[in-house]
Every structure is written in structure tokens, then in C-alpha cells.
Specification:
Distance between the termini: 81 Å
CATH topology of the largest domain: Rossmann fold
Bound molecules: adenosine-5'-diphosphate, magnesium ion
Strand content: 5-15%
Helix content: 40-55%
Radius of gyration: 31 Å
Shape: elongated
Order of helices and strands: HHEEHEHHEHEHHEHEHEHHHHHHHHHH
CATH architecture of the largest domain: 3-Layer(aba) Sandwich
Strand order of the largest sheet: 5-6-7-4-8
Length: about 475
Amino acid sequence: MPPETSGQMVACWARIRGRLRDEVGEVEYRTWLRQMTLAGIDGEEAVILLPTRFLRDWVNSHYGDRLRALWQGEDASIRRVEIRVAQAASAEPVLADGEAAPARAEPAGLAESLAPSRPAELRAPEPRSDWVVPLEARFTFDTFVVGKPNEFAHACARRVAERPASPGFNPLFLYGGVGLGKTHLMHAIAWAIREGETARTVAYMSAEKFMYRFIAALRSQSTMEFKETLRAVDVLMIDDLQFLIGKDNTQEEFFHTFNALVDQGKQIVVSSDKPPSDLAGIEDRLRTRLGCGMVADLHATTYELRLSILQAKAAAAQVLVPAKVMELLATKITTNVRELEGALNRLVAHANLFGRPITIDSAHEVLHDVLRAHEKRVSIEEIQRKVAEHYNLRLTDMVSARRARNVARPRQVAMYLAKHLTQRSLPEIGRRFGNRDHTTVMHAVSRVSELIAQDAGFAEDVALLRKMLET
Ligand code: ADP
Ligand code: MG
């Protein structure tokens, strides 16, 4: 007997959904629960449908009890809630159900979509209106620290979030080195648009995922659905576009999607590690189109920005980090914000674990390896050049066979510094000093150490050289 529905039940169901939405919050609701429909009441059982097996299992295990309690609150005669997979309305295969689930579900969803034959129940209709996107909760505009190097990119991102598809800002092309905030800004745009007044649909994915979805669609002969789904969104965001370099078919597909969306007045946001003009291996016509909206770069961070980021993160984590420690991190870890964050997190974790405050000493101790890895790399050539300069010699004297004391001693100093300031092995250092034996280098190192201990003037000289090379 098919489950029954009535006007009253529909009203109960609407209230239950509303309650759940209030309880779990909008994001979680949209991710997991939005697609629930009520099939009806079958005796003591409320039957709820979801489009995929994955969603059914998830909702069952995470919200099953709550759903039952809410139903009982509405109608005490209902004792069970049964969640089923809706039978597909059309026989046409469409995109994998992984699309409807957030990041954690990705591997399963992808594997299923790549499998040659999928169970019929996975071929549920794709939600037309919304691709549920796994967005990182931390990556919002509120948590993005603005400074000189990123203020332009930030302003462009804000602008696109406020008014998608405004002339001059479509596409928005964000580029910059690793860990400078591209993904953070993209997620921030997506959050802002999703939370905005107008109901706009946003699809965010990495270029890599775009490719896998495209390949999956090809395999399951559902490229039409792939195209339609993508072309139905209001905002398409593709992260790390450089991944498409050399992937001609995927590029072609992206190009068509891109054109279709822009023609319909939809917004495109793309990120990459290089500007459009440097994307060798991306077709010219695509490169041209990518560059014709707004191109904004995230520059390498400055000391001031790194310091502000650390302050913001420490405040958010509600931990006391001495100014000296932040200065140390901001000075030493200069390449990328992700590493900077990682270092801070380590300090905080360490302090929590041992119940001790963060101090400059503990920072040195805990971050020993990180700080070392970020020490300025000095090359052997640089050492040879500086030492030669200092002792008024020619650079060639560093590698020559001359043994005169005025040449041999500085050469030994240079070897000593090479041993201490680089990661090179003794044989390698020997090779770079005119093909000398490693025992010669060893001798130089111990001779210079002895002299440093005996002769204050000499020690000062070496210390000065060392300082010049290190800073
Ligand atoms: P990218 O995508 O450019 O490689 P991400 O956006 O993943 O870099 O950023 C790396 C990490 O650094 C993230 O945790 C991000 O939150 C953080 N981050 C980068 N720039 C900023 C910033 N200006 N303010 C706050 N956090 C930042
Ligand atoms: Mg990124």
C-alpha cells in the first residue's frame, strides 16, 4: 500500500523542516537536508525520500533520531521514520551523486561516478538549482586580513560578491603564489553570495575536479547533463586553473561553458598561480577571454601583513602570543601564509598540551625545524665572493692552487663558512674550491675553529663575515 499524504501532513512536514533548519543552521541544512521530500505516512511510519543512497545513509545516521522525535512531536501516532532513495524520475543517467555531497563524500562519489555501471538508485536527478559546494567555514571575508599586497584582489572579490557579473569584473581572474589566499578569497565570495539576499546558485570547484566530473560525464555518456547543470548556475568558480594546462579536451569544454555563462550574464571567477598571459599550454582563445575581465594578483606578503595575520589568528584562537614571538615568525616565515598559520598552530597546540605559556624560548624550541628551513640560504659562490672581497682578493683565488698564506687563510675561512652556512657535504665543498680533497676542507674547518678560539681579532672578522652572509 503506498504511503498516504494529506494537507495536514504536508503542513507538519513543513514545520519539521523549518525546525530542523533552525537547529542545524542554513549551511548544514542545505548540504544534507534540503533535498528531503515527504513520500507520505504509512501506518506508524513517516516515509521520507532522498535522491541518493549516500544522502539517505548520511541523513539516517546523523538526523534519523531527530527526525523521529520531531515527527512524534507533531503526531504521537508516528513511531518510525523511514528514509528511502527516491526512484529516478527519468531513466537518463546524470551526474554522480557525489555532486550533492560535501567534500567528505567526494572519494566515494567520484569512485561511483567513474565506475562503468552504477546502481540505478544512484542515478537520481541532479538538483537543478544548487550545486552544494564544500566550502571551508573559516574562509570568509571576516577572517581575511587585508594589507597592501592583497588589497586590490580583496576589493575585486568584495565587489564581485556584492554585484556578480558587473561589467568589467567578469571574469574575475585571481592569481598569486601558493598559500597567499586565492582559495580563501574564492570561498569568501561564494559564502557572501550564498548568504546574500538574492538566491543565486554558486558552483565552486577546483579545475581538477572539473576535469574529473567531465571525464565521468563522458564515461557515463551524460555530457549533456554535465553541460546543463553547469550552465544553470549563476556563478561558476574554478580554482587552480593552471591544472588544465595541456588537458585539451577539458579546456575545450571549459571554454564552451565559460562562453555560455558569460553570454547569459553569469559570473565566472577563476584562480591560478600565474596571470593569464603566462598560462602557456592554455589555448590562446581561452587565455584571451580569461584576461578580458578583471585580473587581480595577490602579491607576496609583507612583514606588516604577516604580523597582522598572526595577530588576527591569535585573537581568533584566543591565545596570548607575545609580540616578540609574532615578530620572530613574521620575520622568518616569509614565503606563504599557510606555513605561517601552521607554525602558529603548532605553538598553540604545544602550549595547550603542556599547559605552559608561549614564550620566545618555547617558540625557538618547538619551531626549531621550521625556522631552520626558512633560514636564508647562502650559496658557496656568495661566500667565496664575500670572503674574497673582504680580504681584497680575486674570486679566482678562492679556487686557485696558490698556497701563499694571504690567499690560503681566507680560502680556509670561506671553506669554514661553507661548512657552517650551507648544507653541502665536505667532498662537495672541496670540489667547489678548485677540486680539493674533503680532508683539505676538514683541515680548514678545524684550523679556523682553532684560530677563532685563539685570536679575538680573527674571530671578529669571521663573525662579521658570517653576519653579512646571513642577513
Ligand atoms: P592559495 O589558495 O592561494 O594557495 P589559501 O587561500 O589556501 O592559499 O591560503 C592558505 C592559508 O592561509 C589559508 O588557511 C588561509 O586562510 C590563509 N590566508 C592566506 N591569506 C590570508 C589573509 N590575508 N588573511 C587571513 N588568512 C589568510
Ligand atoms: Mg588554493
